[in-house]
Design a protein that fits this description.
single chain; five-stranded antiparallel beta sheet; 21 helices
């Protein structure tokens, strides 16, 4: 034991785990006081050499490269540049201050260790034991021990450094007595529905951020009942416990950004109220660590700290000229707003849902039977979710994450909308077969292009009407295959935030599109290669979408792809106006009757097939 302690206190070069901070964070409730160095050392030693470790190393290298690049840009700024950007940021701060709204009262409610608490409620024997929901592959959450009498909670599994999103085998090393409980989402959904019935009494238009958290505008409720915001928070928490037997924490503030931060202060089973006063808000936000802010994760934190030396929200204002110089307008606005403690206070308008998805993580496997069973379960879950909202969709996307953390997606757009589990499974199976054999750790299904259950008009023309089916050329079919270059083997409150995070696995960044034959791929790619600059800005049009906007990024790519195909079709004027079948029929007739006029030679075997071969010419104005 003495030897171990001596080795820990030695040179930094003898402790490589100190720079390996991909898993550990004390931003979660219950993680305060954890031996950070011990956790980092265990994580490093347990994962070294694994696919997970290699993937994390790639992410770390990418992040370091980004920091070095921004430092180089920073060094090139002249005093005149900084003065210019100081003026811009000062003007923007005045505009943001003028828009500050202190008239609303927002409450953020967050269930305490929700999955673990539900399992403990179902099995009280787990109450006094360190427990985590998940398995050796991944943990969803770790438990607290709740004492309702004195409203205090003693951390169990989390005091060892065990937390959500941690591989189970590492958690077991940190806490040998840890008990794993398998996930049961039907049970969690049931209890989540119970909590939402309580929320509706305080705000019928509450915003559900996930199964275990929500935002409520309690302004009207406070005024109507003549109660303070603290009294309302206390009453709501008691109602949730009475209805479910579970505890929750609440934060009250003038906007949603601050309310979420406040709910974590006295967690678990507590609450914190921030007065609707500018001085109170500015004082509260000034010393707050930037990682406590929703939308600032590991990558953004390391960039702000590594490039500018920013660790607190107040320092964002102090170094606003640098931020304005190196970040886009929307990103700079977000950072300045955080420094001022300004967040959204309006209730977002209800918009039509664009997509719905389900995914599951599991231990890496090559067993095709097991993989197919996972697909069956996902198909049933997705179908159930679609039917609950009366939706049917035309585009089905299959998401796969391989053992080496490469993310692949295959999509197919159907002529008619579907929502039954049988139809979803049928098309998902076809997409999966194109990837087999493969070793997977995650499978997901997403349905998009909804029409609210109304069948597509058969007479309505779509892009497919203008494309010759590939079966007529190669007698073979294939779905669109989209690979995420950033995740290859070589690698509800904040939708407006241009987050720089690359932390969320499974982002759907798009590099290319494959239509069965590799020789066709280069013809279909957009003329200007599309990728995400700084991991959030479209290289083609400059649109900013953070990695968490998975569905929006996918639809953005679809738009550029369709635009590229349309441009190719317009620019090609060498073929007569023929329908797809007519072109092939005429070609056959010419073979039988002999050439009547000079025809352009068909492409020789093994060469690229021109893009115009896939399109029927039309005079229709797009």
């Amino acid at each position: 034991m003495e030897t171990t302690e001596n080795s820990i206190s030695g040179d930094d070069s003898a402790r490589p785990w100190q720079s390996y901070n991909t898993v550990y964070t004390n931003a979660k409730a219950g993680m305060e006081g954890v031996d950070k160095e011990k956790v980092q050392r265990v994580v490093y030693e347990m994962s070294k050499g694994s696919k997970y470790f290699q993937n994390e190393e790639r992410k770390e290298a990418y992040m370091k490269q980004k920091v070095d690049s921004m430092k180089a840009q920073l060094a090139k700024l002249t005093p005149q540049d900084l003065s210019h950007h100081q003026t811009i940021s000062d003007k923007r701060i005045v505009e943001l201050e003028a828009a500050r709204d202190l008239s609303r009262i927002w409450l953020h409610v967050d269930m305490d260790a929700f999955y673990a608490a539900v399992e403990t409620l179902s099995n009280p024997s787990l109450k006094d034991k360190p427990m985590a929901v998940g398995g050796m592959s991944m943990i969803w959450t770790a438990n607290y021990e709740v004492n309702i009498v004195d409203r205090e909670l003693t951390v169990k599994a989390r005091k060892f450094g065990v937390r959500a999103a941690m591989p189970g085998f590492i958690a077991r090393k940190l806490c040998p007595e840890l008990i794993f409980v398998p996930t049961d989402f039907k049970k969690y959904t049931y209890y989540s529905d119970l909590t939402r019935k309580v929320y509706e009494k305080y705000d019928p238009n509450f915003l559900a951020a996930s199964l275990d958290e929500a935002y409520l505008d309690i302004t009207n409720y406070c005024n109507d009942k003549g109660m303070t915001s603290g009294e309302v928070a206390e009453e709501l928490r008691e109602s949730v416990h009475k209805e479910t037997g579970l505890t929750c924490s609440a934060g009250v503030a003038p906007n949603r950004l601050l309310a979420k931060v406040c709910s974590d202060i006295n967690k678990p089973n507590g609450q914190f109220v921030l007065p609707n006063e500018r001085v109170a808000v500015v004082t509260f936000i000034s010393s707050l660590p930037i990682r406590k802010i929703g939308g600032i994760g590991k990558v953004t934190e390391n960039i702000l700290n590594g490039v500018f030396g920013i660790t607190t929200c107040e320092e964002m204002l102090q170094k606003r000229s640098f931020i304005s110089a190196l970040f886009s307008r929307s990103s700079a606005d977000f950072f300045l707003s955080v420094g001022l403690g300004i967040g959204r206070t309006d209730t977002p308008e209800v918009t039509q849902r664009k997509s719905m998805s389900n995914e599951r993580t599991f231990s890496p496997t090559e067993d095709e039977t097991l993989i197919h069973q996972k697909l069956v379960d996902l198909s049933e879950n997705l179908s159930s979710d679609l039917n609950k909202e009366g939706l049917c969709g035309r585009t089905l996307t299959l998401k796969l994450k391989t053992t080496c953390f490469e993310v692949r997606t295959r999509a197919v757009t159907l002529p008619n909308s579907i929502c039954s589990s049988e139809d979803i499974l049928k098309h998902a199976t076809k997409l999966l077969k194109a990837e087999l054999p493969v070793s997977l750790r995650l499978i997901g299904l997403r349905m998009s292009h909804f029409n609210e259950g109304v069948a597509v008009d058969a007479k309505q023309k779509t892009l497919s009407n203008f494309i010759v089916t590939e079966s007529n050329i190669h007698n073979n079919t294939s779905a669109i295959d989209i690979r995420d270059p950033s995740e290859s083997c070589n690698s509800a409150n904040t939708p407006q935030i241009p987050d720089l995070e690359a932390e969320t696995s499974g982002s759907f960044d798009v590099k290319d599109t494959v239509v069965n034959d590799e020789s066709i791929m280069s013809s279909i790619n957009t003329k200007q290669a599309m990728f995400w600059l700084n991991d959030y800005e479209c290289s083609v049009c400059g649109t900013e979408l953070p990695p968490s906007f998975v569905e929006e990024r996918q639809e953005h790519f679809d738009f550029h792809l369709a635009q590229s195909l349309q441009d190719e079709e317009k620019s090609s004027n060498r073929n007569p106006i023929l329908k797809p079948k007519q072109r092939l029929i005429e070609k056959d007739e010419m073979r039988q009757s002999g050439p009547r006029k000079k025809q352009k030679a068909s492409p020789s075997e093994g060469k690229h097939i021109p893009i115009h071969m896939f399109f029927a010419k039309t005079s229709q104005n797009f």
